[in-house]
Amino acid sequence: MNEKVLQLLEFSSVLSRVAACSLSEEAAALICETHPLTDPLEAAGLKAQVQAALDRLNSGDGEPRGSIPSIGVILPKLKVEGAAIELEEAYALGLFVERGEGLKRWLINGGGEGAACSEVSHAEDKKKPGNTLGSMKYNTKQSQNNTPDVNKSSESTLFSINNHTISLPDLIMAIPDCSAISLEVFRVLDRDGKLRDLPEFRDIKRRINSLTRDLENAGSRYTGNEETRRMLQSGLPSQRDGRMVLAVKANYRGRIRGIVHEVSATGQTVFVEPEDVVEKNNELLIEQRRLDAEIRRVLREMTAKIAASRDALDLFYPGILELETIRARARYAKETRGVFAIDGDGGAGAGETAGVLALCQARHPLLGSAAVPIDFAMDGSIRTVIITGPNTGGKTVTLKTVGLFVLMNQCGLALPAAEGTALPIFDGVYADIGDEQSLSQSLSTFSAHMTNIAAISGSVGERSLVLLDELGSGTDPEEGSAIAMAILDYLIEKKVRLLATTHHGILKNYGYTREAVENASVDFDSRTLSPTYRIVMGVPGESRAVDIAARNGLPAPMVEGARSYLAEERADVSALISGLKEKHRELAAADEGRRQEETRLREARRAADLKELRLRQKELEMKSGGMGKFRELLHESRKTLENLVREVKEGELSREKTLKVKDFLRTLEETVNAEDAALEAEETAITDERRRLETLYGNDTSGGTAGGRKARKARNISPGLNLELPLRISPADSITIMPGTDVLAGEQRRRGTVLRSAKKGAWIVEIGSLKMTFNEADLIPLPPSAEPKKPSIAPVDYAETPQAKLELSLLGMRLEEALSALERQLDAAVLGGLHEFSVVHGKGDGILQRGVHDFLKKQPAVGDYYFSRPELGGFGRTEVILRE
After folding, report:
1. 47 vs 49: CA distance, rounded Å
2. What is the mean pLDDT of residues 777-781?
3. Is residue 841 within 8 Å of residue 822, measured between CB atoms?
């Protein structure tokens, strides 16, 4: 990609925003140096890696917090024989490895294919780092087909050669385990970066403490004696070059024998080292030098052990930075709520003709809330689009948005657009946008444009995107139009993907006379004389220069004169464009009318079908009512006949009379059963019709539930359907009754929730505050509600809540006062949602430092705390991270 084009499209500004999402300064620098990928497989692989990290962010689990230390300046020291890295450098190295391992675990434990990296396999890879590297090399070579083999002398090249063609879990697993380095560092240092009390130091420190006490006692003999105390300017001994001295008044210098180390600026004070403490000062200085030498020895041994893992660290270091660049992209995608573009090539390999280029509700990422969404589309058959329209209408913004989106997509970045956005992978983006007039180079506007286009024409191919703004401008309109058409002919012949803007009327006609070329325009509201920024495909636009000039204060005589010239010279072209726009509006209106008519007919058909269904349900209800009377008649007839039989038994009874009575009863029962079966068949037909209407119109048909005749017999209710029941139709057999199911219970159809099973065929249902037992036949299950229950939130009065600070300074405070201020800061941070802040306590004697850390250690709201990086304050400043 051309650096000039990247600068022209402000691509570096977008990368800076992505880099701001990184926790590592070195990873941020890598992001700012990113160049768009031109290999479709690599670009797709990078987006897949970022999508996997984004899924992990969206899973709800907390991501690693805090910054990742920079160790780029430390690694070269590990190559130097006998080198010893400093305490703070060792601490940064240990933190880098520790937090790098934490980032790996966080990404591995995420959803999707990352979950396949189990702890067992990870542990085996720790035992066999060589197998991991070998597998990585194999996967890399398999994914890039004919790419050159990786340089075996430098395993770190694995992270710079097509590392985006493998999945994120494979990339993670390729990073070797360097936890031994962290263990070695923190064997010498504690978690606060302080030197541990190792056995090698104890004797020396004991001797130093003893000598320090002797010196304090020697000093107190001078400061505690009334005779000598009046000779001193200060009641406490001082330190000069690591040696204890006394501040003696100048006129008493001869009274205290010793070595003079310094004289004050006024000459009133002489700093004297008494003779009786000279030897002790010497011994103390020697012991301190011994301690420094021992610390250097321990650091050199630690450096040697770390240097033995130099090869693994050379892989670990770029690998973790690579993971952090991917995580920063995912964080940017989450913050901007962007989407990843669909592959516009449709899976075609390199060298194939680019396919669909479509932007849906695309917003320029640098315009923020001022960006107007743009819809723009080019299918595979359209290679060139000529955009025309008024000034300030959004033509140039459209070009820049398309170009910037292409660059972002090929860097694995999410786009501020809607789903459906599709972009091909281009091997180059070329642009000539804006006025590059240069007096120093004797270039006019037209000359600058021609110089740029000449350079572009010699570099483009079939997989190139070319953006040309104000094509043919800056010279005579007739000659400029001729040159513009020649340029378009040449670029179309080379089958590039081309977007051009222009004001030349002849180029509007050009789009109708060439294949694979389409006109487009930015819409303009003629009533308000203002642009709408909407792209209209297939229709050229008018420049509306006269209207815009009038709106901007051009005198009326000039405006009228311009309109008269236009009427004479360009009436035919204006009429053509106006006619095309009118046809376009008529087609849009006709299409809208057709959609409204389809909706009306659909509603009419729906109403007719529902009316027929209600009639059939009413008929079934009436039949069911008659059937109930028929059953009652049968019951009464049975009783009458039984009484008749009983009376006959008391008199004369013949066998023929008895058989005749039984035949009557059997015939009557068979008739009732046949009618009942007919009712069941009709009910089944109505249920099937209801389901068909649900499928056709959705769940908007109002009707009763098909509970079945057996259930109605058990409830002793009419089989008629209740059309006024405000429920969505859902077949009873499609929802299983279980604890937690919403149901309608009993004859009153009261709404409740199933709690548990009572006995076979019965359930305990909670209705309001009551718990009742119902047979399963008396329960009608309801479909689950689509709307989640909204939790009620009690209002909190924040009027008295202190304001949380990003940096709390405790300098100059006593310990009790400092801890009180820190407690107030913690309360304010928790209430205000501040997850991180820093505490400045200074170094001094370490009283505030220890008190702050002891206090933070006991606070349940504190998730972690540690000293800041050296450039931010080191041991004098503590970073506090609250629990999520």
Report:
1. 5
2. 85
3. no
Q: Which two tokens stand for residue 661?
A: 């009575």
User: Helix H segments across 460-570?
Assistant: 477-493, 505-513, 545-551, 556-569
Q: Tell me how far apart the alpha carbons of residues 547 and 567 are, in angstroms, rounded to a whole number.
A: 14
| 67 vs 2: CA distance, rounded Å | 33
Whether 14 shows a pLDDT value over 90: the answer reads yes
Best CA proximity match to 866, nearest among 884, 879, 883: 879
Helix H or strand E encompassing 596: helix 571-650
Nearest to 273 by CA among 198, 229, 222: 222
Residue 280 CB coordination number (10 Å): 18
| Residues 790-841: tens digit of each pLDDT | 444 444 444 445 678 888 999 888 888 899 999 998 888 888 778 889 999 8
Q: Hey, how many other C-beta atoms are within 10 angstroms of the C-beta on 112?
A: 16
Query: At 768, phi and psi to the nearest 5?
Result: 65, -125
Residue 713, pLDDT above cutoff 60: no
Query: Which run of H or E residues covers position 291?
Result: helix 275-307
Q: How far apart are CA 480 and CA 487, in angstroms?
A: 10
Distance CA 128, CA 130 (A): 5
Does the pLDDT value for residue 140 go beyond 60? no
Listed residue (551, 2, 701, 44) closest to 342, CA to CA: 44
DSSP 3-state of 357: strand
Q: For residue 361, how many other CB atoms are within 10 A of its CB?
A: 15
Instruction: Read off the pTM.
Output: 0.57
Q: Treating both helix axes as pointing N-terminal to C-terminal, what angle do 571-650 and 655-697 enclose, rounded to 10 degrees?
A: 160
The token pair that represents 412 in the structure block: 């694995």
31 confidence band (pLDDT: 50, 70, 90): very high
Q: In what order do the strands lie in the sheet with 464-468?
A: 428-432, 464-468, 497-501, 384-388, 517-525, 530-537
Q: Within 13 Å of residue 665, how many CA atoms lie on the same side as its CB?
A: 16
Which pLDDT tens digit goes with each residue over 407-463? 999 999 999 999 989 999 999 999 988 765 443 443 567 777 888 888 888 888 888
Q: Look up residue 258 and give its DSSP letter.
A: E
Q: What is the pLDDT of residue 697?
A: 62
Three-state DSSP class for residue 240: strand
pLDDT of residue 707 exceeding 60: no
| Confidence bin at 568 (pLDDT 50/70/90) | low
